[in-house]
């Protein structure tokens, strides 16, 4: 007897959409279509899509920052993710100076264990590139950590030099890992921040004005050229602007294996948001900064045409009422980050309503391709016999107006407050277990599992 059958829905994958019942046993999909026989539980998905659970490969839960922890730990953060239709995250584990990568991973395992309500993996952020760390990079993919993150920005903190970038890319090529890069020129941004502060320009808008598009485009191009020199694949996180897209396309034309994501907030906000009155602009202090409506249109097209591969949340939650107030008199002291782990899928889905791309492309961008690139597919990101039963019943007609009070994260605002959306996740299943029912979280803390991810392998993408 099956554990669960989801019947009468339209199953949507990255490859297409067709009506099919889904049979689930022991946490996995065991049957698609045909006579399901008896089941412990049947859910009627009439009039709904059944899509693979979302895969968000860019989150910062329980993140450190100037002696504070972010507003979301792995409990509130993953509950919010689940309620938004995301069933897998890959979070950033950050090495502290003097720490081995294994020690850093131990810290992140402890943060997630007993809290996460959905499955999770870790990328490792390399900050302190010692000979020991260089050796560890070869071992980590064996332990299911098959992506390394580097910052070209945040001088004096996470920023690494080009020598570290090229050596990390070299090790990643040897070990089968994918290097992810935060591409902004940290020296240039630092110079512009100093100039603005010296001129008395302390308001949040100067965060954006200190990190103009060229700061990002230069670093994006440099990262891609270094990947080309090392013969390694590369993934550009949170791409926001034309100059960076130009570098991605030019790299591909030279044969570089470059993938890139954007994030939800770049599709919906602009630099003007940082100028909002009463210090409200501080809510929009994330890096790279919001750009223009022309950039938004360009990013939507890049998602539709396949130039960009994924949309992530970059969820790094710093509250307005407390954390962000530290930068009232100095924009550079506002902790950077965007909120949106719960809103990501519903906000990207609005493009389907607008005819920008198909519901299959939506699934591809928020689930399937991120799963493929980061070694989770076909366990995650897929509706196929043998895949984990991570499924979302998505009601294309359900409507709501986004407000902070409907969300589940630990922060105190939404970047999408007041936005009307159509198309929402109603029921969410993780490894066969219903964890969200009629938009109410019904799962258990700590039920999420660490997923050992496979190596990057273009040959099986
Ligand atoms: Mn970043
Ligand atoms: Mn980030």
Summarize the structure.
The protein has 461 residues and is of the alpha/beta class. The protein has 2 domains: 2-51 and 382-441, Urease, subunit C, domain 1, CATH 2.30.40.10; 53-377, Metal-dependent hydrolases (TIM Barrel). Helices cover 30% and strands 24% of the residues.
State the helical fraction: 25-40%
Helix count, DSSP H or I runs of 4 or more residues = 12
Q: Major beta sheet, specifics?
A: 8 strands, parallel
- The CATH superfamily name of the largest domain is Metal-dependent hydrolases
The tally of strands reads: 21
What is the CATH fold-level name of the largest domain?
Answer: TIM Barrel
Label the structural class: alpha/beta
SS strand fraction: 15-25%
The domain tally reads 2
Task: Set out the fold topology.
Elements: E1 2-7, E2 10-13, E3 16-19, E4 22-25, E5 28-32, E6 39-44, E7 49-52, E8 54-59, E9 64-65, E10 68-69, H1 74-83, E11 86-94, H2 101-112, E12 119-125, H3 131-139, E13 147-151, H4 162-175, E14 178-182, H5 186-198, H6 205-209, H7 213-230, E15 234-236, H8 242-253, E16 258-263, H9 264-268, H10 293-305, E17 310-312, H11 344-353, H12 359-373, E18 391-401, E19 420-430, E20 433-437, E21 440-441
Parallel strand pairs: 1-6, 2-7, 8-11, 11-12, 12-13, 13-14, 14-15, 15-16, 16-17
Antiparallel strand pairs: 1-4, 2-3, 4-5, 7-18, 9-10, 18-19, 19-20, 20-21
Helix pairs in contact: 3-4, 4-7, 7-8
The structure holds manganese (II) ion (2 copies).
